[in-house]
Amino acid sequence: MLKLIPRRRHHLPPIIFTSRQLTQSHFEDDPPFSPIPQNQNQSQKNKSPKQNQSKNKPQINHPVKSDLPFDFRYSYSEINPSVQPIGYRETPKFSPFGPGRLDRKWTGTAAPSQQEVDMAKIEQQRNMIHGEPLSEDQVLELVERYRHSDCSRQINLGKGGVTHNMIDDIHNHWKKAEAVRIKCLGVPTLDMDNVCFHLEDKSGGKIIYRHLNILLLYRGRNYDPKNRPVIPLMLWKPYPPIYPKLIKNVADGLTFEETKEMRNRGLNSPPVMKLTRNGVYVNVIEKVREAFETEEVLKIDCAHVGMSDCKRIAVKLRDLVPCVPILYKDEQIIIWKGKKDV
Known about the structure:
CATH class of the domain at 72-227: Alpha Beta
Shape: globular
Mean pLDDT: 84
CATH superfamily of the domain at 72-227: YhbY-like
Structural class: alpha+beta
Number of helices: 10
Number of strands: 10
Strand content: 5-15%
CATH architecture of the domain at 72-227: 2-Layer Sandwich
Largest sheet: 4 strands, mixed
Radius of gyration: 33 Å
Helix content: 25-40%
Order of helices and strands: HHHEEHHEHEHEEHEHEHEE
CATH topology of the domain at 72-227: Translation Initiation Factor IF3
């Protein structure tokens, strides 16, 4: 038979003592669960009231005054100031800069400048900032540094064109970079000359590189980020106003029957080109002009582009080709060559 041999009892430390050691080491190793010291609440109470008041002190927003010599608009390249709207979708008193934040009055489409523009003085200031012209080697160095797609100093220009807040983004990039890369897509690429003009005019920079839809905007040799212009930001996008109807029931120079015949002819003809959404439309104007040498009515396929972009494209074609848009249907734009006096 087996005999049970009694086990020797070992003197173990008290369980309470061990648990205290574990809890203390646990608190020390894991700060989020450490006990709150008793003096912490007293230290918070003993803080000077001046520090608390400085944190909770309300900021007084005075109207911002900007000396920029042009009218503030949401978009500079996609809005024609000569075309007056016939109505507004919101009351002009709602300024996108916020109530009482700008010393200019919002008219519904723009915040006009309050001072007379001295173009000679402005040109002199910009020449001082630009300094001496860059040499070919300096231009090539900047182009090689900023023209690539992986450049961190890039701004995307969409269907809004050269917007007001984009000017502030350009100056923010110019704090640490001599040039900024601008990638243009969508409707503004139909007229890249207009985009380049407004970028240089509103920012004060100079375009040193242009390839299709890629631009490099140089800040100048003597640019000082500390003396950058004051650019109040738009807090929201204003509602676009209501403009006159683009397509008339009867085209100018045609009768009703002739207009109907032109529309049917354009719908039944093959499209001269197909446009994609947010594409690059740099060569569209030239292709349309070449097609008008042999055809009188053209159809442009704008499937998946969107109705708002179709209208913008038609306006650009009307002004740049020039031509007469006579129909929108099923995301197709029908344009007529128009009658030209010999």
